[in-house]
Amino acid sequence: MINSTQPHRVVIIGGGFGGLYAAKAFAKCANVEVTVIDKRNFHLFQPLLYQVATGTLSPADISSPLRSILSQQKNARVLMKEVVDIDAEQQAVITSESVIPYDTLIVATGVSHHYFGNDQWKESAPGLKTVEDALEIRRKIFVAFEAAEKETDPEKRKALLTFVIVGAGPTGVELAGAIADLAYSTLKHDFRTIDTRETRVMLLEGLDRVLPPFAPDLSEKAKEALTRRGVTVSTSTRVTQIEANAVTFQKGETTETIAAQTILWAAGVKASSMGRVLEQRAEASLDRVGRVMVEADLSLPKYPNIFVIGDLAHFNHHDGTPLPGVAPVAMQEGDYVARLVQARLQNRAIPGFVYRNVGSLAVIGRNDAVVDLGFIRFSGFIAWFVWIVAHIYYLIEFDNKLVVMVQWAWNYVTRKRGARLITGTELEELETKPVSEPDKSPIKV
């Protein structure tokens, strides 16, 4: 039990959904001092990151400064630092600049891309987890169209207008649908040499259906919606090699190499490096992708004052399977840990964490989405509208909600996307080097 006349020091590593909801839940606790540490100075609404990558929204539309969010919370402070280590015995967080003591530690550092042992693919097939990722993908997409406009070689032009997305989970499906809408609708009148409706969008999935976390009937409806949009969906497909301008994949006994200037990765995630730190410093156990195995109250077995929440946590105390890595899980876990700490301060006990499933949503494109609320499943326009309302609701600040609503309304009426900026580098020429021999040992994605 916790009982002290001094303010209880809560340190939160990570300003994502879990960390931020935990911090805000301490707002009325006069006997608690909250320190939020993040290497970024903003909270990012990751579910809409794909819209930045495809030119619908700008990064500021889905980001909010952490200091602004917590500015009215007098018991909270924000430190822009990178945590490099933890001393569980001395109860201290170690950054590159200082040592920060804690009484309770909440770790919510999320996950990153997982290339299944093929990290060399990262340069050729970027994933989508950060603002920088989204801007790089946006640059690649629009550079491809610009380069195709001036390309005279038909084969090179075909490669420039071929987009391959590896992984058909929610991110992959959303990217594929958005790129298809972009090519077949938004850009169709913008170029003079090329017809953007000749664009080829391919979605590759290692399992036997798209959106594997969803019910099979919704997966089938999502596949049908993608096909109607012009996306080529290939399931039970294993990627064996990715190069700068080509992807090799195996489907059954057939191996094929596709020339594509733009290859995007949406096939898997792995835990942040803080999982390894907790394994070494706090005797935590990790699962195969590096997530931390937590107790029923989200704490570590050997250190009950250290909690792990959000995508970094492997919580399997409800039915033996881990909770999905979605925003509502992180939000509820953050709120629960804050309530648990407050209960401990009052020498009370509360039951273990129970996730309230608020449903799963995935958008395919304009007027198309799938929704699973547990008691009912549906797709199409109504699902798309529910998806819009849910995402507006979960945006953190009012100005973000207003800006995104206005942007979406304008884009819906005009079919335009106002954030189609190419920044960072000059246009790149399509490389003409031959594709190397494919790796013979396939990997499931």
SSE blueprint and pairings:
Blueprint (H helix, E strand, L loop, with lengths): L7 E6 L3 H9 L6 E7 L3 E3 L4 H5 L9 E3 H4 L6 E5 L2 E5 L4 E4 L3 E3 L2 E4 L3 E3 L17 H20 L3 H7 L1 E5 L3 H17 L13 E5 L11 H13 L2 E4 L2 E7 L2 E6 L2 E6 L2 E4 L3 E3 L2 H9 L9 E2 L12 E3 L4 E2 L12 H19 L14 E6 L2 E5 L4 E3 L1 H14 L3 H17 L31
Parallel strand pairs: 1-2, 1-9, 2-5, 9-20, 11-12, 11-17, 12-13, 19-21
Antiparallel strand pairs: 3-4, 6-7, 7-8, 10-18, 14-15, 15-16, 22-23, 23-24
Helix pairs in contact: 1-9, 4-5
The overall average pLDDT, rounded, is 91
Q: What is the CA-atom radius of gyration, in angstroms?
A: 23 Å
Dominant shape: globular
CATH superfamily of the largest domain: FAD/NAD(P)-binding domain
How many domains, as an integer? 2
- What is the number of strand segments? 24
Contiguous uncertain segments of 5+ residues: 429-445
Q: Give the strand order, joined by hyphens, for the main sheet.
A: 5-2-1-9-20
Oligomeric description of these chains: single chain
Largest sheet: 5 strands, parallel
Summarize the structure.
The protein is of the alpha/beta class and 445 residues long.
Report on the architecture of this protein.
The chain is an alpha/beta fold. It has 2 domains: 182 residues, FAD/NAD(P)-binding domain (3-Layer(bba) Sandwich), CATH 3.50.50; 149 residues, FAD/NAD(P)-binding domain, CATH 3.50.50.100. The protein is built from 11 helices and 24 strands. Strands 5-2-1-9-20 form a 5-stranded parallel β-sheet, with helices on one face. Strand 14 and strand 15 form a beta hairpin. The radius of gyration is 23 Å and the shape is globular. The C terminus is likely disordered.
